[in-house]
């Protein structure tokens, strides 16, 4: 996916907010805005939205003098999600056994609401309501269910801290005999999940953890560690969570499914859905 006009203002806002979260004053927020504008004056239309966002966050980290600005917020949302875990499991298991996988997918995508680049504050009630009520823009569940059942090797590309607990619900509904790799970021960027977040969520009990090797939004597969590239090439199925991963993997090779909430207009437009809709779609 290529960057859109809306990405300019969105990422300037994100850089301002990140510097504020780091505890810096309005002068620092002004400075980071200037720096992002200077960078974007040379923006290439071939950039992805994820690349634009990464560069803005890199400038925010430099201005704030903090490498992992969202560290404490990630701890907060991991703990919030872990407290919700029993209720989320109940939501899955209270339905007929034939519906457990489908209900777990709804839980996993509800977790995609935990995105501090879009929403400044998330409450538990919002997350649970998302599970029950948000409508689907595209929904290829039957096809995904068939692929999950047939797959022996699966790559699951994670997104945000907190959200990884919701991903765990879905992973637990997959056959324990499958070989699953769960992918997290190689370094801090926004509130994206790192190794510590996946461990706190209990993912390592279900899947092997690998990092992108990058402190970037999304995933540039060509720059990923050889171990991940090799498993990706062997995988029967790849599930990609969230907008940032969609922005960077929309043209990637593999039997790839996107699972996300179309939070912003450019992504909704790219997918042909209404803004805010949920999407479960195989890559065309």
Architecture overview:
By secondary structure, the chain is an alpha/beta fold. It has 2 domains: 6-64; 71-282, 3-Layer(aba) Sandwich (Rossmann fold), CATH 3.40.50. It is built from 12 helices and 7 strands. It has helices spanning 6-21, 26-40, 49-64, 71-93, 100-110, 124-133, 141-150, 163-172, 195-201, 226-234, 243-249, 265-271; strands at residues 136-139, 153-157, 179-184, 208-211, 237-241, 256-261, 278-282. The chain has a 7-stranded mixed sheet with strand order 1-7-6-5-2-3-4, sandwiched between helices. α9 links the parallel β3 (179-184) and β4. α4 (71-93) packs antiparallel against α5 (100-110) and α5 runs antiparallel to α8. The model is unreliable at 116-120 (pLDDT under 50).
What is this structure, in a nutshell?
This protein is an alpha/beta fold and 284 residues long. Helix content is 50%, strand content 12%. Strands 1-7-6-5-2-3-4 form a 7-stranded mixed sheet, sandwiched between helices.
Sheet with the most strands, sense and barrel status: 7 strands, mixed
Fraction of residues in β-strands: 5-15%
- The helical percent reads 40-55%
Distance between the termini: 13 Å
The structural domain count equals: 2
- By CATH reckoning, the class of the largest domain would read Alpha Beta
Number of strands: 7
- The coarse silhouette is globular
The stretches of 5 or more residues where confidence is low (pLDDT under 50) are 116-120
| Series of H and E elements | HHHHHHEHEHEHEHEHEHE
CATH architecture of the largest domain: 3-Layer(aba) Sandwich
């Amino acid at each position: 996916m290529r960057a859109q006009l809306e990405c300019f203002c969105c990422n300037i806002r994100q850089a301002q907010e990140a510097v504020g979260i780091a505890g810096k004053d309005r002068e620092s927020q002004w400075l980071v805005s200037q720096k992002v504008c200077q960078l974007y004056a040379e923006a290439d239309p071939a950039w992805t939205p994820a690349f634009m966002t990464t560069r803005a966050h890199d400038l925010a980290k430099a201005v704030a003098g903090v490498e992992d600005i969202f560290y404490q917020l990630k701890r907060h949302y991991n703990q919030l999600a872990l407290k919700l875990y029993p209720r989320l499991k109940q939501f899955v298991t209270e339905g007929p056994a034939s519906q457990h996988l489908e209900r777990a997918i709804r839980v996993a995508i509800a977790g995609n609401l935990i995105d501090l680049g879009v929403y400044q504050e998330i409450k538990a009630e919002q997350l649970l309501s998302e599970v029950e009520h948000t409508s689907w823009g595209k929904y290829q569940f039957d096809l995904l269910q068939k692929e999950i059942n047939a797959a022996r090797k699966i790559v699951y590309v994670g997104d945000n801290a907190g959200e990884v607990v919701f991903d765990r619900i879905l992973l637990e509904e997959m056959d324990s005999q499958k070989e699953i790799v769960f992918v997290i970021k190689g370094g801090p960027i926004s509130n994206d999940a790192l190794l510590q977040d996946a461990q706190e969520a209990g993912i390592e009990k279900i899947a092997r953890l690998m990092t992108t090797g990058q402190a970037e939004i999304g995933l540039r597969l060509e720059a990923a560690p050889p171990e991940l590239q090799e498993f990706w090439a062997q995988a029967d199925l790849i599930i990609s969570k969230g907008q940032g991963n969609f922005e960077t993997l929309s043209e990637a090779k593999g039997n790839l499914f996107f699972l996300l909430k179309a939070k912003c207009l450019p992504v909704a437009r790219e997918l042909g859905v209404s803004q805010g809709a949920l999407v479960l779609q195989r890559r065309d």
